Amino acid sequence: MNYSDTVRETWRHSQAGVDPRDFRELVRYATLAASSHNTQPWIFELESDRIRILPDHSRRCPAVDPDDHHLYASLGCAAENLLLAAQAVGLKGGCQFDAMRSGLVIEFEEAEPLRSPLFEAIPQRQCSRSVFDGAPLSAGQLEQLQAAGRGEGVSVLLMILEDQKDLVADYVARGNDAQFADPAWASELKSWVRFNGKEAVRSGDGLYGPVMGNPAVPRWLGQLAMEAAFSAKKQNRKDRRHIHSSSAIAVLYSEVDDIPHWIEAGRCYQRLALQATALGLCTAFINQPVEVAALRPEFARAIGIEGRRPHFVVRIGHGPQMPRSLRRPVEDVIR
Fold first, then answer.
1. Which of the listed CATH numbers 3.10.20.30, 3.40.30.10, 3.40.109.10, 3.90.180.10 matches domain 139-317?
2. Beta 50-55 vs 282-285: how paired, if at all?
3. How far is CA 5 from the centre of its chain?
4. Could you read off the pLDDT of 139-153 as tens digits, one per residue?
5. Could you tell me if 312 and 288 are in contact, meaning their C-beta atoms sit under 8 angstroms apart?
6. How are the residues of the chain apportioned to helix, strand and coil, as percentages rounded to the nearest 5?
7. Crossing angle for the helix pair 23-30 and 69-88, nearest 10 degrees?
8. 26-39: per-residue pLDDT in tens?
9. Spatial separation of the C-alpha atoms in residues 248 and 264, rounded to whole Å
10. Which CATH architecture has domain 3-124?
């Protein structure tokens, strides 16, 4: 299939009724979750009454994610989608951290089917790297986003004031300066860019060039163009414009800094993003302040959460639909 056909096949609800024990379809929904650079660093093991979600360390990003925080958080994102899909077909899932395998085990029991608004939003959610319209959110919308982003030991800070956006933009710029100065980070990012539809369909992963506002071009031309435009200064201008066009900035953080809380933060982010989607809003990561280890505690202190681990920084607002990244076939992620 070409890129457009693959997008339609990927980002959809099930076309027919789903057997509650068709765990492969639940896995398909899980793979529509967010992951850093769209690496999809997960492996699913299917049993008669449970699904295990395990880390795929072959898909690590050691430059941008040296402690594997984003990798483990991605497992939480996938788990949240999977639990919502299970609920929709009449399964209640209990999710536990598996310390022996550093993953998750989800055990199921029968329940009344419930297609929640967050489940309905799964095929519409995307990371929209675009300018938003800056329109303020209502108190009700902010309350719903706040509730969606809370979890066990995880909280969300919502910032809507212009001076707060200025502060975030300053830290994003400092993060860009550090990351763009790191050749390993730059090389790693480029390795995950898919410059045209054929590349995106062939790999089923990575960042499709037009997702970031670039035209689809042959790889050789995309690499040349990326080299010419690749600078912290240009990225800082773009990010500052994007941040100030946003209605709110969300920071998800936890009291404890360990793998179970990283995973829980992923679940909370996924719920937040799905709730935003259900409200007709867009979201996009601006994670530079939490990805640069030396900057992270200073950023936490500046926004009033000193001593906690900030996991994600997310823009929220009204914006356009953007092209979509793809996903690998379900067969490739089941073991």
1. 3.40.109.10
2. unpaired
3. 23
4. 999 999 999 999 999
5. no
6. 45, 20, 35
7. 130
8. 999 999 999 999 99
9. 22
10. 3-Layer(aba) Sandwich (3.40)
